[in-house]
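Let us begin with a simple case.
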Amino acid sequence: MTLIVDRIEEEPLEEPTPEPTRRRIDVSEMDAAGVREFVRDSVGTDRVSLEHRGSRTYLLVEQ
């Protein structure tokens, strides 16, 4: 039995685009209005999201 292996020309992989830097701020003790006010007054961007980890809530700020 003969095994024939063909060489496949592959294009080089593109460089992965780096993910944006994120800052994580613990906002577990704040209510929704407090988080909204904090973002408006202190963060400087509207590119934010919330993340829940266990019993903690974090504000993720993309920079």
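The second case is a distinct protein. As before, the sequence precedes its structure tokens.
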Amino acid sequence: MRVQKLFLLMITGALTCILLVVGVINYFGGLTEGTSSTAIFFLGITGAFSVYFHSKTEALYPFSEFNDPLEELSKKYWALHISFGLTLLILGIFITVNLLKRSADVTIISIAIFMNVLGLWTLLDLFFLNKFIVSHKKRLAQREEIENIKGTVD
């Protein structure tokens, strides 16, 4: 699991750097008309927060350690991470459908499919992480209740 998280962190980091550079070049240079530099820049910014989210939650992997308390991440980072995954997924689906209608080049379609996979992978990682955190909190609460019961019996 930790290798998967590191791999996702590296891919997200590389994609974020590319998006931010392309967004800035497109915004200031105006390389292509008709592309939305705001959308590219938004994806880059949410990607940067996603990289931060991955780096902070990487310490939680593997999911088997329940003894230590977890460091809570702000809900803002969760929301930005979700928006990055959803934006990638929706944008990838939209591009894939439009390119398949026009029977475009396989290379461009593979980039859109990669965006779909990365968006889905990001959202699934988030789902399993949230599931682990909820389970961890329940387990700690149960352990605390048991400790309180032991303390009152003595």
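The radius of gyration is 20 Å. The CA atoms of residues 37 and 98 lie 20 Å apart.
Keep these points in mind for the review questions at the end of the chapter.
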